[in-house]
Design goal:
The complex is a heterotetramer of chains A (187), B (102), C (992) and D (417).
Chain A (H helix, E strand, L loop, with lengths): L15 E3 L8 E5 L5 E6 L4 H12 L15 E5 L2 E5 L3 H8 L3 E5 L4 E7 L3 H8 L12 E6 L2 E9 L2 E7 L3 H12 L4 E3 L1
Parallel strand pairs in A: 2-11
Antiparallel strand pairs in A: 1-11, 2-7, 3-5, 3-6, 4-5, 7-10, 8-9, 9-10
Chain B lengths: L1 E4 L3 E4 L4 E5 L16 H7 L8 E7 L7 E7 L5 E6 H4 L3 H8 L3
Chain D lengths: L6 H9 L20 E4 L3 H14 L4 E4 L15 E2 L6 H15 L1 H5 L10 E5 L2 H16 L5 E4 H7 L14 E5 L3 E2 L2 H14 L3 E3 L4 E7 L2 E7 L4 E2 L2 E4 L5 H7 L7 E10 L9 E4 L4 E5 L5 E11 L7 H14 L7 E12 L6 E4 L5 E5 L9 H12 L14 H4 L16
Parallel strand pairs in D: 1-2, 1-12, 2-8, 4-14, 12-19
Antiparallel strand pairs in D: 3-7, 4-6, 5-6, 9-10, 10-11, 13-16, 13-17, 14-15, 15-16, 18-19
Bound molecules: flavin-adenine dinucleotide (FAD), nicotinamide-adenine-dinucleotide, flavin mononucleotide and zinc ion (ZN).
The site of nicotinamide-adenine-dinucleotide has 34 residues of chain C, from helix 4, strand 13 and helix 9.
């Protein structure tokens, strides 16, 4: 028997329609439960070697390490620092060896995916960055209404948000508040 | 205000936490400097506190969490450069250039 | 639709209001009607209302001066109930809607019979700064109890709201290549030029629609009316990708291309018309690479007696009411002008059927003949009569006489709206510059990414304004665009220099709201307040809600004259944000009250909520303080019950909020050695150690345990309160001082849920949870660490104790922590496992003499808290140097001690002061120290105990002391001092 | 006719058109030499000159001000006056200052509108309550007054505060009843007029551009209006301390930071006390004119510009609306900044410098308005070679000895205080 994973987003985060009820939803949101997230951080001077190791082990091409060069499963949060999804910590540690720190953050970070026609209007309320200068595939560590948040742009109107688990309820509530005028559909 | 982070690029200042002027490096570990000597006092307390070009520590706390040293004009708030703190004291030339107000 | 009410001053044509849509509203409970598109001012003027309010100081009757944001007089309250009361609305900016209820402000009795008008009778005794010269007879108490309350009641304008604001507000991050401030013809022209060049452009216009002066001046553009031409431009700009934001005031200019703007979304709509879930206002934080200031110009009046009478208004205002709203503010109009511009307005009024007399101050003015307009040259308005509305105007100068008039329009010249161009003056090294030709301040030289366009530059004719707009576009990389041909152009000329007319004095007002007069400026100069900033502060000129938009320049010009200086020498006062007042709430946006800051929740928060926990805030976290069980009388009862259960059998508590940092790398031990005071190199894998961190200044920063999980792998815990600060400190030290250390670390606070099992049955319970792990005293000795699995997930077992009991902390991933917590409760049921909160923990840690934030308050040294022995002499570490300063070994330093109440039932007061006598004297020279933490009841001692810091602490062990708290009614409590380690001082329990 | 102010004089002048008011201060040309030069015509400089003349009879004094009198921080602060400090090093001094405030209008013959409308520092946890109780107790032991309010007490005193704040509920507050506000400009002008009347030369638009030092002692200054000699020079230049100190070759433990302040449109009385919100480091009071005057913490970066940026402004409004929800609809009228001389422990320095004859008055952080009379009093004593015990701990060398006076316990980081 495997234990029940606890929803970190709190009781208000329920599937279905929230806020404005008329018309199609402006924002769609979903939370990936049980996602495996590993944080890696290169030791000083080892960032390039670490990226090479990750490429060798998992085929991830992280380029020279700029935030724009990540991938959906390797989101850059800082120099030589990534959130990797889909691999467990032991596998990652084995891959990076002494080049980098690797810690499990599967419980520590919550990933929300948001999309929809009102996504730009929504992000304009919560994120200080300019979407016009933000290519698809780029990650930015910034804030969501003052809560530390790493964003990854999956598509034109689709973003992953990584936030600390203990903050997730506030993020959830504030996302509900901010998207009420557009209509929010939670999957 | 915008601050340039060498990793993240131009970012709004609310993502950063300022710490103060970066005028003197930390005295070496295990050195013989006494706490009342200039080395320690300059690191912790004493400041030239120039009006004009200064170097200042900022933490990109709501971003990549790097400490950076930002070259700023304290009369106009203009940011003219920034570097990772991890490189700043290593690169004495840059530190000196900035100190000289270039 | 309701019946149509008459609007006596409304023309049957002209303006851009919608005559098909009457709108009914009230002012001071009287019902009026205006049209869609009206401001409250235009609608009331249409109804013949002249009296709008009372001035601040003298309570003089006041009407409308301007037609826009510069309005100083007509401030009204919009009332939607006490919570939704909105004072100090400018009637000129308030758009009417069906059912709007408005009230005049700041009077006792009806507006037209304000009792406070007595102030006007005494005005001669209340000149600028009078309050500095009196009201201190009788000393402090007379001022505070007698004079000041009267002044405070009289001061202020509208009534304050009295409850939380029911509206919500949004903050929007808006980005653009170029921000254009001002949607007049100049701003729009530049915007079009830039948008056509492919730039992303945002145009912010403070008023209800784009167009500015073009909407009322009556000029035509390529044969189209102003309104039509503007509409046409707006479509083109939007087609080129530009954004137009009407009702949006750019209130401030900040560093690096950041601008603040407020968009008003609801105030012009009835409740039913407001889209659900939308914000009343939006605060746009605009980030733009370039900016165009196209803010126009604001007309000024002239100082003459009675220039504040209702019915005296700026010529541009009268013209706006006529041209934009189809309202004729008078039938017999006197128009006092200092330049040609006045004739345009005169012509418009005459065309609208008014009888107009122009009083032209210039003797040498060119002859202009306008049908039905009489011109008297070389004269000025000397006095306006009519308390509740102008009736007569005396003129003087080359000739003198008296005119019957129901409106007096004043064209005193224009002040370019340079406000925003000087918010960041230091970037340009210059304030606005005085142009002695134009008799106006114009923007200073702008930096590369800035341009100015239109009448803000000092350009006067529309053609010149368009040319400056074209040039601004060019400066910022715009495309050249076809400029329109302007017909029926208004006459323009430089004004004659006349700031105040001869004989202007007590009743010649400059700052109408604050009642600062021509005389006041002279008095300020006479009393030595010669700096323009002194004059402003002494007379309060320019300090009212309009910030002197119509008054400042005139004031400083008069100061220049009174002190024999040039206007340029006198200069302006400092322009400051906001450009016009904005609700405080809109800048707070979403972050208010409950949403002021995020909550951080432990993974078992919901469980605790369901099980009687009362929470206590700890930084952003909410932590259970105690759990109320049936029969508990109060919090102390609960805490004591929890303590007893733990000490007697088994307690469980949530420690998920502790900071946790994972540290990896070959230099990890060296890094810890530098961070902590004690040594780390010898710590074996599978062991934890308590560590103490200092700040660089040598005082205690934080404490916690760090475990060695692998050769190069450590797991650090910090206090809840300092978790973020410790992480930041480690990052700082690593990156700024020792970047070469081969170590990396990450916060894993949120990754792990953690609980502590404490009490004699803790081991048995742990064994049940982890049947396959050897948790015996040998298998998991004190300070031992085991990494294992629970239900397939990593679990870390730590044999550490904060409570002083045999105790373990177990960490598992937060996702399954709730399940693990439930399992622990089940496993512990046979020992009556009892959840305990911070209050019980507090009792236990005080009994044990463990310190927390109350002791580690940032002012204590290691020695002060008895941890001096934790210093390794073999190495250097953060804070070592500074802790060798002389004050650290001062024998007078207060050190930690335990206190025990003399009698059961006695309270010890946290924050109480420790003395060696119950009789006093109690003062700072006799105090020994102070109490930091109190357990109001210690089951161990059957009475209150406490931790305190006192001088010569060790000498007092076993002796009687007194805790005195003056702020608790001077309570004096006898206590006995002893070692702070009350409970199990030899650690037998934790090692058992 | 005496030139004293008062009701009857106002009446008389009113009747004759106010022609009889003379200048509040002269506009003298600088002399070649003075006994004492005070650099800085802010509150502290003017008060120092006033007490030098009044208490010590030293009247051959010039105050050199680079701009206009009172145009620095004394003219741009939130006017909170209190003596609610924890440490003896501060409390003795601030209590002395508060006592001077209580008689100041009469003493200066100028209504500085000191209004003891009380201050309440709200707290949010039991731990904070104990810390506030300790502070209150220590205040009383130093001769000040303090009252510990519970939640209901705060509600009674200030009904518009959201004591039930759902995020940071208020447990109570530490109240000092004798604390309050004063009219900032009047303080500067009152001291200026008082000093001028006693013979002090107040010289405006006179920037000190050099300090002459010979053999380790000062001999005079260079200014934008020429050189002026003096054997004693007192520096009271607040945010400009490092720059002026540098003229004498001093490097000082000061950083310059901006603090912003805000005033709302005038409204009828809504707040009586000065109140502070612990969770947001926010403070507010209502002026006699009806404006809400409020502020919070520093922007945090070093600057010499008297203006700040939006993130801090947003923070102030968030805290304000959370603390006093009704202020949401009140409109912000004006915002501005002042340059603070931040010391590493948040407490001031009034001391001699290593250069003989050069005296230092600095490190006021954002608390020096309340200090104005006390600072002038103590600094004048120091300059007159009669140092008082109130400033015994406000030493320049305390960062070397470790005898810091850290009210917040924040440690050696200038912008944290
Ligand atoms: C926004 C804000 C809010 C504050 N709130 C409070 C509060 O509520 N309570 C409180 O107690 N304190 C408060 N303070 C702090 C207080 O205002 C200052 O600590 C205090 O006014 C500083 O002393 P001062 O009056 O002498 O300084 P200032 O008034 O700044 O005087 C220094 C003078 O020196 C002059 N000067 C500088 N360099 C030279 C030179 N080279 N030559 C000649 N002259 C020179 C300057 O022009 C200036 O006039 C606040 C400060 C600010 C900015
Ligand atoms: N000096 C003169 O003689 C004079 C004076 C006034 C108007 N005019 C005429 O006005 C026209 C000039 O057009 P223009 O575009 O320069 O001025 P304008 O007055 O037509 O437009 C300026 C616009 O900027 C807006 N604005 C000002 N500050 C703002 C802010 N902070 N945020 C948002 N909006 C703001 C105003 O509401 C106004 O609508 C010409 O036709 C000219 O003849 C001339
Ligand atoms: C306590 C206090 C109250 C103030 N009230 C007002 C006010 O009612 N109206 C106003 O325009 N400015 C007011 N100000 C701000 C001043 O106009 C001015 O902005 C401030 O003193 C800083 O000066 P500066 O803006 O010239 O740099 C006030 C300032 C203080 C310190
Ligand atoms: Zn960064």
């Amino acid at each position: 028997m495997s234990p029940v994973l606890k929803n970190p987003l709190g009781a208000k985060w329920t599937a279905g329609r929230h806020g404005k009820a008329e018309g199609g939803p402006g924002v769609l949101a979903s939370h990936t439960a049980g996602l495996t997230i590993v944080e890696v951080a290169a030791l000083p001077g080892q960032a390039q070697a670490m990226r090479a190791a990750l490429k060798a082990a998992f085929g991830m091409d992280l380029g020279a390490g700029s935030p724009a060069e990540g991938a959906e499963n390797a989101v850059c949060t800082g120099p030589g620092q990534y959130l990797l999804t889909g691999h467990d910590v032991a596998t990652v540690k084995a891959a990076v060896g002494d080049l980098a720190l690797a810690v499990d953050q599967s419980s520590g970070r919550v990933r929300l995916t948001i999309s929809g026609p009102a996504i730009a209007a929504l992000l304009a309320k919560t994120c200080p960055l300019d979407l016009a200068t933000w290519p698809v595939g780029a990650a930015h560590a910034s804030h969501f209404l003052h809560i530390a948040c790493t964003y990854f742009r999956r598509g034109d109107a689709e973003f992953d948000l990584y936030v600390g688990r203990s903050f997730a309820q506030s993020v959830g509530k504030w996302l509900l508040d901010a998207s009420a005028e557009f209509g929010l559909e939670i999957a | 205000m915008l601050i340039f982070c060498p990793h993240c690029g131009m970012r709004p200042s609310e993502e950063f936490t300022p710490k103060g002027l970066a005028e003197a490096p930390r005295p070496a570990l295990g050195g013989d400097d006494r706490p009342e000597d200039d080395a320690w006092q300059d690191y912790l307390h004493t400041r030239t506190n120039k009006a004009g070009q200064t170097n200042e520590y900022f933490h990109h706390s709501l971003g990549c969490r790097r400490w950076i040293v930002v070259h700023r004009n304290t009369l106009t708030h203009e940011v003219t450069g920034s570097t990772m703190a991890s490189e700043f004291w290593q690169n004495q030339q840059q530190a000196q250039d900035w100190e000289a107000g270039q | 639709m309701s019946a149509r009410l008459p609007q006596p001053n409304r023309l049957d044509h002209g303006g851009i209001i919608n005559r098909d849509r009457p709108v009914t509203f009230t002012f001071d409970r009287r019902v009026y009607q205006g049209f869609e598109g009206d401001s409250l001012a235009s609608a009331l003027l249409a109804n013949g209302v002249k009296l709008f309010g009372r001035s601040f100081k003298y309570h003089r009757p006041r009407g409308i001066l301007g037609a826009g944001p510069e309005e100083p007089n007509a401030l009204v309250e919009v009332d939607r109930g006490p919570a939704d009361r909105d004072p100090n609305h400018r009637a000129t900016m308030l758009e009417i809607y069906e059912g709007l209820e408005t009230f005049s402000q700041n009077h006792i009795g009806p507006l037209n019979m304000d009792l406070m008008e007595v102030n006007d009778l005494f005005s001669r005794f209340l000149p600028a700064g009078f309050y500095y010269k009196t009201f201190f007879f009788g000393g402090l108490q007379a001022w505070y109890r007698l004079y000041e309350p009267i002044i405070r009641r009289a001061a202020g304008l509208g009534r304050p709201p009295l409850a939380a604001d029911p509206h919500h507000y949004d903050k929007i991050y808006t980005h653009a290549d170029t921000l254009v401030v001002g949607g007049g013809i100049a701003g729009l022209t530049t915007a079009l030029s830039l948008a056509k060049a492919g730039q992303s452009v945002v145009v912010c216009e403070e008023r209800d629609r784009m167009g500015g002066s073009a909407l009322w001046q009556g000029e035509t553009f390529n044969g189209e009316t102003g309104a039509a031409y503007i509409a046409h431009m707006c479509r083109e700009i939007e087609a080129a990708g530009g954004r137009l934001l009407p009702r949006t005031t750019v209130f401030g200019v900040y560093d690096a291309g950041t601008f603040g703007a407020v968009e008003r979304c609801h105030d012009h709509l009835t409740k039913a018309d407001r889209a659900p879930h939308t914000a009343r206002m939006k605060y746009h934080r605009i980030q733009a690479k370039a900016v165009v200031y196209a803010t126009g110009a604001i007309e000024r009046s002239v100082g003459f007696n009675g220039n504040d009478r209702p019915g005296v208004m700026l010529a541009s205002a009268g013209h706006t009411f006529l041209g934009k709203y189809g309202v004729r503010v008078g039938e017999r109009v006197s128009l006092f002008t200092t330049h040609d511009g006045g004739y345009g307005t005169a012509a418009a009024f005459s065309a609208a059927g008014a009888e107009v007399t122009v009083l032209d101050a210039r003797t040498d003015a060119a002859d202009v003949s306008i049908d039905g307009v009489r011109v008297i040259k070389g004269v000025y308005a000397g006095q306006a009569h009519g308390r509740m509305g102008v009736r007569r105007v005396d003129y003087d100068g080359a000739s003198s006489g008296s005119l019957d008039a129901d409106a007096l329009l004043v064209a005193g010249g224009w002040n370019p709206a340079v406000h925003l161009t000087s918010h960041t003056t230091d970037r340009r090294q210059s304030k606005p510059v005085y142009d002695a030709e134009l008799l106006a301040f114009v923007p200073p030289e702008l930096v590369d990414q800035e341009a100015a366009a239109g009448s803000v530059t000092g350009a006067m004719s529309t053609a010149d304004c368009l040319a400056t707009a074209q040039a601004a576009g060019k400066k910022l990389g715009g495309k050249k665009i076809e400029l329109p041909t302007v017909d029926q152009a208004l006459p323009v000329s430089k004004p004659m220099e006349m700031w105040a007319v001869p004989g202007a004095g007590d009743a010649a007002f400059l700052d109408m709201q604050n009642d600062a007069t021509v005389k006041d400026v002279k008095l300020a100069a006479q009393e030595g307040f010669k700096s323009v900033e002194h004059m402003k502060r002494y007379t309060t000129l320019g300090m009212a809600t309009d910030q002197g938009k119509t008054a400042n320049v005139t004031g400083l010009a008069l100061l220049a004259a009174a002190t024999g200086r040039d206007i340029a020498q006198v200069g302006t006062t400092t322009f400051r944000p906001p450009y016009t007042p904005i609700p405080i709430g809109v800048l707070a946006g979403h972050h208010r009250q409950r949403d002021y800051a995020p909550f951080r929740y432990s993974p078992v928060h919901a469980w605790a909520e369901d099980n009687g926990a009362t929470f206590m805030e700890a930084g952003l976290w909410m932590r259970p303080a105690y759990y109320t069980a049936p029969g508990d009388k109060d919090w102390l009862d609960s805490a004591v019950r929890e303590t007893r259960a733990t000490r007697g059998s088994l307690g469980i508590t949530d420690v998920s909020t502790l900071g946790k940092i994972d540290i990896q790398g070959p230099d990890a031990a060296e890094f810890l050695n530098r961070l902590y005071t004690n040594g780390w190199k010898t710590l074996p894998v599978g062991k934890a150690r308590y560590g103490l961190m200092l700040r660089e200044d040598g005082l205690v920063f934080d404490d916690g345990t760090t475990s060695r999980l692998g050769e190069n792998h450590y797991y650090m815990t910090t206090t809840t309160a300092h978790a973020a600060a410790v992480m930041t400190h480690m990052e700082f030290m690593h990156q700024s001082a020792w970047p070469d250390l081969a170590v990396a670390f990450a916060s894993v606070t949120d990754q792990w849920g953690a609980l502590a099992l404490a009490g004699p049955n803790a081991r048995a319970c742990l064994a049940k949870l982890f049947p396959e792990v050897d948790v015996s005293n040998d298998g998991l000795p004190f300070m031992g660490v085991i990494e294992t699995q629970w239900q397939g997930y990593t679990a870390r077992l730590f044999r550490i104790s904060f409570s002083g009991e045999l105790a373990y902390e177990v960490a598992v991933p937060a996702d399954i922590f709730d399940a693990f917590w439930q399992a622990a409760l089940q496993a512990g049921a046979e020992w009556k496992i009892t959840p305990y909160g911070l209050e019980a923990l507090n009792i236990m840690r005080i009994e044990k003499g463990h310190v927390t934030g109350a002791e580690l308050d940032g002012r204590v040294s290691m020695d002060d808290v008895g941890l001096g022995k934790m210093v390794s002499s073999k190495k250097d570490f953060v804070g070592r140097a500074m802790s060798e300063r002389e004050a650290f070994s001062d024998p007078d330093r207060a050190k930690m001690v335990g206190l025990v109440a003399a009698k059961p039932g006695d309270k010890i007061i946290g924050g109480g002061i420790v003395f060696d006598s119950a009789e006093g004297p109690f003062d700072y020279t006799t105090m020994l120290g102070y109490v930091t933490s109190v357990a109001q009841y210690s089951p161990l001692k059957d009475r209150a105990i406490a931790l305190a810091f006192i001088k010569n602490a060790a000498d007092w062990h076993g002796k009687t002391l007194y805790v005195v708290s003056h702020v608790h009614g001077k309570s004096i409590m006898e206590v006995r001092a002893e070692s702070p380690h009350f409970y199990d001082p030899n650690n037998e329990k934790v090692m058992a | 006719m005496s030139d004293r102010y008062g009701f009857w004089r106002l009446l008389r002048e009113g009747l004759r058109g106010h022609t009889g008011w003379g200048p509040a201060w002269r506009d003298p040309e600088p002399k070649a030499e003075y006994d004492v030069i005070i650099i800085g015509g802010g509150g502290h400089g003017l008060a120092t000159a006033y007490y030098l003349a009044k208490v010590h009879g030293i009247t051959n004094v010039a105050v050199l001000e680079k701009g206009y009198l009172g145009g620095g921080n004394v003219g741009r602060n939130t006017t909170i006056v209190r003596s609610n400090y924890l440490h003896t090093g501060n409390e003795l001094f601030y209590e002395k200052s508060l006592q001077l405030w209580e008689g100041l209008s009469g003493d200066l013959d100028y209504n500085v509108m000191f209004s003891p409308r009380s201050i309440i520092n709200c707290f949010h946890t039991d731990g904070q309550r104990d810390a506030e109780a300790r502070r209150g107790n220590q205040m009383i032991l130093h001769g000040a007054d303090a009252v510990l309010l519970d939640k209901e007490g705060v509600r009674r005193e200030a009904p518009l505060i959201d004591v039930d704040n759902p995020r940071f509920p208020i447990y109570g507050g530490l109240m000092q009843k004798r604390a309050g506000t004063a009219r900032h400009d009047a303080v500067a002008w009152g001291f200026a007029r008082g000093a001028d009347k006693r013979g002090v030369d107040l010289i405006q638009n006179c920037e000190v551009t050099g300090i002459d030092v010979e053999d380790g002692r000062v001999t005079g200054v260079q200014t934008s209006r020429g050189p002026i000699k003096a054997k004693k020079i007192g520096m009271a230049v607040a945010g400009n301390t490092s720059r002026v100190g540098a003229l004498a070759g001093l490097r000082l433990p000061i950083e310059s930071h901006v603090l912003q302040a805000f005033v709302s449109e005038g409204i009828k009385p809504m707040l009586h006390n000065v109140i502070t919100f612990g969770a947001g480091h926010f403070y507010i009071s209502q002026s006699d004119k009806g404006g809400l005057v409020f502020g919070a913490s520093l922007d945090g970066y070093n600057t010499y510009a008297q203006r700040g940026n939006l993130p801090l402004i947003e923070h102030v409004m968030e805290a304000g609306v959370s603390f006093v929800p009704a202020m949401s609809k009140v409109r912000l009228l004006r915002s501005w900044g002042g340059v603070m001389d931040m010391s590493p422990d948040g407490s001031p320095i009034i001391d001699k410098t290593p250069i003989e004859g050069l005296y230092l008055n600095a490190g006021w952080c954002y608390g020096g308005f309340k200090a104005t009379p006390g600072s002038g009093w103590c600094f004048s004593h120091l300059i007159a070679d009669k140092p008082t015990h109130h400033i015994a701990q406000m030493r320049l060398d305390r960062f070397k000895t470790g005898r810091v006076i850290d009210e917040l316990g924040a440690g050696a980081q200038h912008n944290l205080h």
